[in-house]
Amino acid sequence: MEVGGEGNIGDVMRRLSPKPDEDVRKGAWTAEEDNKLRAYVEANGTGHWRSVGKKAGLQRCGKSCRLRWTNYLRPDIRHGSFTSDEEELIIELHATHGSRWSLIAAKMPGRTDNDIKNHWNTRLKKRLCDMGIDPVSHKPISELLWDLATRTIAHSPGSKQAAKRCFSDSLLNKAVRESCIRPTSTTGLSSFQSEVTDVKNIMISNKGEEKYYDHAAPVAAALGLDDVRYWVEDELLHRLPEIWTSSFGKSNETCH
DNA sequence: AATAATTACAACCGCCTTCAT
DNA sequence: TATGAAGGCGGTTGTAATTAT
C-alpha cells in the first residue's frame, strides 16, 4: 500500500484510468481463448463482463469478451450464409425499422445483429441499388430524383440551373465511377482525356446506365430537357477537365 | 503464377441508456 | 439529483479469403 492510501491522488487516478495496453489483448480470438470464455460462461453464466476476462484467465477487456460471446460463441447462433427468404425478411424489416439491427435480429432467431448488419452492408444494399431502389428510403431512385429536381430545388430562386447542376453531377459522377477508366494524377489530364474520348459509348453500352437513364428521363422532362442522354454526354465531355481535377488531380490515389 | 481488386465478416470504437448508489 | 459502472447499439475498420485480371 502506498503512503497516503485511499486519499492519494495518484492512487485514485490509477484506479479510475484504463489499464495499460499491455494488460489487454486485441485482435482475433484464438481457439484457446474461445475455450476459456466458453467454459467460464457455461459455468457462471453471462453478466458482469468487466470481471469476466480476469476470472476466465483471459487478457481481454469485458467488452471484447461480451462481444465474442454474443456474436460468435453463443450456442444458439446459426452460422453460415443467409437464405433468400432471410434476405427478403431483412429487406422488409429494414424498410420498417431502418438500421436498428438489434430490433431486426430479435425477429430472426439464430442471427446476430452484427451478422445482419454485415450482410446488409456487403450484399443487400448493393442489390437494391442495382434494382434502382434507394437502400435508405426503399423508394425508387427515379422518385427521389423527381422530388429533388421538381420540389426541393426547382421552386427556389435560380432553381433551374441548380437543379440541372445537381442532376448532372449525379449522372456524371456515376458514369465516371462505374466506367472502367481509373485515372491517377500521374496519368495526367491529356492522357486521361484520350482514354475517355469515347466515354459516351461506355455509358451507352453499360446496361446499368441505360436503367439509370430510364430513372432520369422524367426528371429531365420536368427540367425541360428534350433528350437527357445527349445533354449529359455534352456536359460530360465539356466538363471533363473539371471532373478530373476535382476527383483525381489533388492526390496520387487511384479512382474508386 | 503473380498481382490486384473485391468481398465477407470479426472486432473495435465511441456514444448512449439504464441502473445502482 | 448526481455520478459512475455496466451493458448495448450502430458505425466503421482491418484483414483473411476469394475472385478477377
Q: Would you mind describing this structure in some detail?
A:
Residues 12-25 have a biased composition (Basic and acidic residues). The chain is mainly alpha-helical and 256 residues long. The protein folds into three domains: 5-73, Orthogonal Bundle (Arc Repressor Mutant, subunit A), CATH 1.10.10.60; 84-130, Orthogonal Bundle (Arc Repressor Mutant, subunit A), CATH 1.10.10.60; 141-248, no CATH class. The chain has 14 helices and no strands. It has helices at residues 9-16, 31-44, 49-55, 62-73, 84-97, 101-106, 113-130, 141-153, 159-178, 189-195, 199-205, 207-222, 228-238, 240-248. Helix 8 packs antiparallel against helix 9 (159-178). It starts with 8 loop residues before the first helix and ends in an 8-residue tail after the last helix. It binds a DNA duplex (21 and 21 nucleotides) through helix 4 and helix 7.
